[in-house]
Amino acid sequence: MVNVIVLFAKIEEAKSIAFKHSNLDESQVSFIRSEYDFDNGIEKYEIEFYYNNNKYEYEINAKTGDIISYDYDIEKHLT
Q1: What φ, ψ does residue 76 adopt, rounded to 5°?
Q2: Which of 44, 47, 38 is nearest to 65 (CA)?
């Protein structure tokens, strides 16, 4: 049970790092995904969210809090 609580806290920290980098606040965005992943020996959090039809994607190192990569795409929705 303790690991779940710690993992949750770190996911919240990773979200905060992504928000700070994108100059956005959690109240401004819609989340689509935030999860822990272990890839090529690196523990990381994958964070994805939308703001004004723009999709933001972040990979954040789970141990250091460093941004491994990020991407920003303008999504076009057909109506």
Answers
A1: -105, 120
A2: 44
The predicted model scores a pTM of 0.82
| Rounded-to-integer distance, Cα 59 and Cα 70, Å | 6
Rounded Cα distance between 16 and 20, Å, is 6
Q: How far apart are CA 63 and CA 76, in angstroms?
A: 35
Helix (H, G, I), strand (E, B) or coil at 61: strand
79 falls in which pLDDT band (50, 70, 90)? very low
Residue pointed to by tokens 């954040």: 60
Residue range 26-41, pLDDT digits in tens: 999 998 889 999 999 9
Question: What CA–CA distance (Å, rounded) separates 34 from 17?
Answer: 13
Q: Which amino acid is at 21?
A: H
